[in-house]
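How it folds
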Amino acid sequence: MLYRQFATQEEIDKEYDVEKSAPDFQRYAEFNINESKKARDELECLLDVPFGPTVEETLDIFPAQDPDAPILVFIHGGYWRSNSSKEFSWVARGPVALGFTVVITNYALCPKVTLPEITRQSRAAIAWVQRSSKTFSGSRRRIYVAGHSAGGHQVAMLLHTRWMEDYGLPRDVIRGGCLICGRFAFLGCSPGCNSPKTSFKLRAHFFACRIARHRCL
């Protein structure tokens, strides 16, 4: 067996092909696009705010009315290879209505970059938010993170960051995290994620995610 009960790479790839495995996938994709556009049209927002040196490192910010509001940073999913912040603007509706400032991150995708580079960008986004919070109605003392799928993996990596040692930020800069359907078991990953071009160091990430999970318990 190549991995668990799977004998071939093709069998593994099939398990991760969301578009083909979900017969109504397109309906959900269209929902994300249409509802996100409505959210950007109806909510106050600051779009494509740069936080890093590369063109993909941008934030979409949906500020609350309270200048000292808690901040929710959301990291989108897409198997590290697809989507952007723009398909997930709709996520801001609920938290903004509850008084949160919502920050949705954008990041470079594989195979253009490696998984560690995506993690670097996610960490840089948190550092920027913490240092710039007063410019967009947010409290640097109340930063929370959430992510879906690949974004859930990124949240785990953020919780496993040495904020004081590497960024000069408080160790509890992130006050809490929500990992939604996160991807953490990388052994047997498909070639799209485990090719020589991307060179992910997946085992190291897997164990780091396990450590982050225990730290949150």
The chain has one domain: 9-216.
